[in-house]
């Protein structure tokens, strides 16, 4: 704590300019006119090809990079990777580095990733006797020799390789292969999320991208196999065997199942003799029986409601527990980590949090109207505006705003609202409403996807990212033509410009939950990324969110509690375009369910230092 205080004090005393963090908006000028068909984007990346040049935008670096290309260039874009296939040289472009990395290839080279796997963060390229892998988190090519008999599979954050008695797994976060020796080649491979499986006739091997480890379990002969993002399950009429990529382990249950009627990213419900039993990928464990299979179930990502008779049960995959609300319900819905039930006698919504594992009664000013759910919040209508129910705290945070119209969707983290005078967004990490004055009285154009929102308000476009937590607006140089909100970035196209907004703070983590998919388990290695180059430095601080933000004159806003902060200096390596900090988080039960915030003071060459936005990490 003291080093950053002394550094801030000395910088404040010597600074002659106000700090200026890079804008969350970046603009590409296209004087010849934008060909909208040549603009593509997903996740953190936006690409545009024009006149022999490829322009690539990284939401992490908040900037464009340019590469000369031929007229026959082919692009493959995923959330974290861009592959530029152009003649004898292919380039990988990682969202977390913002640099093009060349790979010399022959005419026989081929990309192995299946078409439509747009969330992959590992790219596999086979070129004759070489297998090349590229990670969107690391940004380097890794190569290994192969024979014609090798097997492979990749999806999301895992890649698997098998050849003879060698079995190997790659995690996207280190970008390295991890080899083991097995008794016989597998029957099949399966990848998704953070979980890779090698299934043989007598043994199953599981690989976790979170722990970069292999574990094994005896196979169940003739078992039915099902899986989703971070888990897989084998079952028959007498037993169940499940694997969690989040925890990096197998779990056995001596009861059978007839079906898996509900399957989500972080859990599954198995239909057993004793009723519905959950397997939580977050906890790596089966639950006690929850409810009869006849219950009305509303599942989503890590939460579910199960209604039967005069009660509604809320299930939390984060805790692998369930809690009952003892009242009949008119209807229920669930999204991400939040659920609600409309009480039959009053029509009022009771809210359930998968993070706390508890039900909450709404305040007296809440109206008997169905809430609008997002993955981290619920927006409830009140007599004076809205209340945002926070899944993190169970608080109902008021917004006093006449005529407020809620905006959001059940597949995204952003919860917002608007009225005649202002735009509003709820920062679920700090239980704060953030507002922005309207600039026109024209109809708004609003898009929200995952962690990103943009709003067109006259000739102004405003962006809000759930992982950054603040509004930032810019004036469009020309009338709006078309736009798209991606999971972590926005693209706005006018006649001669492409404007991009990032949902990320400059300090980012590979962990995203509960705003987005990637869960961070206790005992794993935490990766933090800073966009600083050789000659720059940063001071990284970690701790708890402060009860109230503290303005640091000249440098921005400190969102951490100073009494809980620990700090370290960060320097990038020679020639590096970023700095990565890896922190080993203990596998301590006392950390499970806690949330930690990280913030950095960045000092770039010939620029005044400034405080970044925060990166929040929930340890599960």
Task: Tell me about this structure.
With 620 residues, the protein is mainly β. The protein has a domain of 121 residues: Immunoglobulin-like. Strands 55, 58, 60, 61 and 62 form a five-stranded antiparallel sheet that branches. A hairpin with a 3-residue loop joins strand 51 and strand 52. The chain is globular and about 65 Å long. About 2% of the residues have low confidence.
List keywords for this structure.
mainly beta, Immunoglobulin-like, 1 helix, single chain, 620 residues, 62 strands, five-stranded antiparallel sheet
Write the SSE topology.
Blueprint: H1 2-14, E1 25-29, E2 39-42, E3 45-50, E4 53-58, E5 63-68, E6 74-77, E7 81-86, E8 89-94, E9 100-104, E10 110-111, E11 122-127, E12 130-135, E13 141-145, E14 151-155, E15 158-163, E16 166-171, E17 176-181, E18 188-192, E19 195-199, E20 203-208, E21 213-218, E22 224-228, E23 231-235, E24 240-244, E25 249-253, E26 259-263, E27 267-272, E28 275-280, E29 285-286, E30 296-300, E31 303-308, E32 311-316, E33 321-325, E34 329-335, E35 338-343, E36 349-353, E37 358-360, E38 372-373, E39 377-381, E40 385-390, E41 396-400, E42 405-407, E43 416-418, E44 422-427, E45 432-437, E46 445-449, E47 452-457, E48 460-465, E49 471-475, E50 482-485, E51 489-493, E52 497-502, E53 508-509, E54 525-530, E55 537-543, E56 545-552, E57 556-560, E58 566-570, E59 579-584, E60 595-603, E61 610-611, E62 615-618
